[in-house]
Write a structure and sequence with these properties.
The structure holds two protein chains of two kinds.
Chain A lengths: L2 H21 L15 E6 L5 H10 L1 H5 L1 E6 L4 H13 L6 E5 L3 H6 L7 H4 L8 H8 L7 E14 H6 L8 H14 L13 H11 L4 E4 L2 E4 L4 H15 L11 H8 L5 E5 L2 H8 L7 E5 L12 E9 L6 H13 L1 H11 L6 H4 L17 H9 L11 H18 L4 H18 L6
Parallel strand pairs in A: 1-2, 1-3
Antiparallel strand pairs in A: 3-9, 4-7, 4-8, 4-9, 5-6
Chain B lengths: L4 H38 L1 E5 L9 E5 L3 H7 L2 H33 L6 H9 L6 H12 L5 H8 L12 H27 L3 H9 L4 H12 L1 H16 L3 H6 L12 H11 L3 H34 L1
Antiparallel strand pairs in B: 1-2
Helix pairs in contact in B: 1-13, 2-13, 3-7, 3-10, 4-7, 5-7, 10-13, 12-13
The chains are: A alpha+beta, B mainly alpha.
Chain lengths: 438, 307
Amino acid sequence: MNKRLVAAFAAAALSTTLLAGCGSSDDGGDGDKAESGPVSLTYWAWAPGLDKVAAIWNAGPGKEAGITVTVKKQASGDDLVTKIITASKAHKAPDLVQAEFQALPTLVSNDVLADISGQAGDTKKDFAEGVWQQVTLGSDAVYAIPQDTGPLMFYYRQDLFTKYGLSVPTTWDEFAATARALKKKDPKKALTTFSATDPGLFAGLSQQAGAKWWTTGGDKWNVAIDDAASTKVADFWGGLVEEGAIDNQPMYTPAWNKALNTGTQIAWVSAVWAPGVLTTAAPDTKGKWAMAPLPQWTAGDQVTGSWGGSTTGVSNDSTHKDAAVEFATWLNTDPEAVAALVKNGGIYPAATAAQTGDALAQAPEFFANQPDFYTKAAEIAKTTAPGAWGPNVNVAYSAFKDAFGKAAQDKAGFGPALGTVQSTTVADMKKQGFPVAE
Amino acid sequence: MPPSPTAARRTRRLAPYGFLVPAVVLFAATFALPIGYALYLSFRKIEVKGLGLGRGARGETWAGLSNYASVLSDTELLHGAARILGYGAIVVPVMLGLALLFALMLDARRTRLRGFSRLAIFLPYAVPGVVAALLWGFLYLPSLSPVHYALGALGLPEPDLLNGGALFGALANVAVWGGTGFNMIVIYTSLRAVPAEIYEAARIDGCSELQIALRVKIPTVAPALVLTFFFSMIATFQVFGEPMTLKGMTNSISTTWSPLMKVYQDAFVRGDLHSAAATSVVIAVVTLVLSFGFLRAANSRTRQEAS
């Protein structure tokens, strides 16, 4: 027998024993009801300026309670989800984590997030029902405290709309007509682009149309990514790309920044956090944009979807869950904390009281020309359709990027691409052993 | 008291093992153990119970060969392999051809500014792959590229380099730009090691510089060419950074464009370490078989020629 092979087998055997050793280690957690002495918590997050908000806690309420919080910027969005799951497998997850709404089922399924319903049940009253439902996953448990939401809105270049004689679309039909009218007036310009690299935006648009991608019925999951509502949205955008009425290149690229900054693209369907992105992507257009409600499928309706939005969760590895929940509740509901989050992080708070509070009295600097920005935003936020997320959003999103990327490039219509996302997602769930209803 | 003859013999017999210990420990800890762990992972899988939510919803169990079965029947992986074959078919010949040409030109007697040219050709190799990909990405994007601007100003058609067949050329170009210098240095070094007498003899026999290059220099640096080909093959199998960096700029690079990108996607986006481990093992085996198979074939040929 080959010597190398022998070595490999020996190593494999050795690593097996090592692993067995890992498995028997203590779970940590649960027995932490009686807290005494100073507690220090670690918080993995990416929202800008969170460290400053934690400093307010550490100097004030935290000092009184003997709880110190350290913010660590590890990664953001989906990357952080992966990182936390890995850390959790080694039983080394931080006490607190920032997680987007759509990541919650994945984190819960991987046993990362603790059920904090015992400590945070009362917090429910501070949030809108649709928002709270997303942190309970429709169960009696509570897996996180909502932090911010991302209701979808329509952003447009006020000056260029006037120049080309366009009016702000209130329905998707008008939106399509506006896109065609602009192409006719100046073929080099586009109203916007369909970005295949941003599945979160498409998910939000489907949500507005009434889609519920993941639901549970009895002890089975229902996956409906290619339901009638989502198909309608896919066909709409696919049609616009196919006829060339809008661009088909991805967002968040240097080319996209330039298109926004030079006015080659004159509108953007985005969320309430868009001013922050425009500030860095299109600095020359300050004060030239305006925000309006998202176009509707039926004239007179008032519904929107969401893109992003995040929560603060407590990990199962935390040995100080009570303290962690205390901080998470303060962070997302205390007026001073929320005001600091808005100021330093530019987020749109999820707590209902904060949406009409002093924190949002002033419009974002980039939108100084629209002083009632946040009043309008609060009205729109109230109309957000609830999200319905499942345990493998990551798989659906990457399938989306590949299938829609190809369809957008070939200008081939998006129906089949949506079908691919559905079948890939269901196949992955079945492979992992989730019961899926046919 | 001097050690007894048997003790001395035993020490002498054990000594080689003592010398081997550091190497063996390092090999085991940094090489064999991780490979063994990857193999172990590849035979395991995650199983979900119930709705898969809450505590204890996931457990790890033996998977047997099921991970390998799904890797080998995965058409996306095959497509990825086909894509990098197409990519390698451009990169390897162009890069090695240029490297050989530059090495021969630097070695020619009349070449001036030899040191400067060598450095200039080598310099891109010092640029990190991700930076190189970003740099070229900016040059490829039609609305940002000065090349497109110039073409547009002259009224010439502006090519779309990040889509369709041109994408392969665009990606290959980044690798050629970055890798030619390194390969040139390897070939050039082996050219400098050729004794001058051989050239003298060739010249006395009436060889022109071109004939010397074709008939003397290239055959004598054949081992270096084999080596650089070997390295380039492995680098092609492992292409990851460039397409990963350019992915965000175009719809045409999928998240599983190259086999290694699929491994990354499985492990760190889908969170399925087990199928990622199985795919890695398959890629490693294929790389080993192909690259060492090539080396063996090439060596046996050179040996035949020598005898």
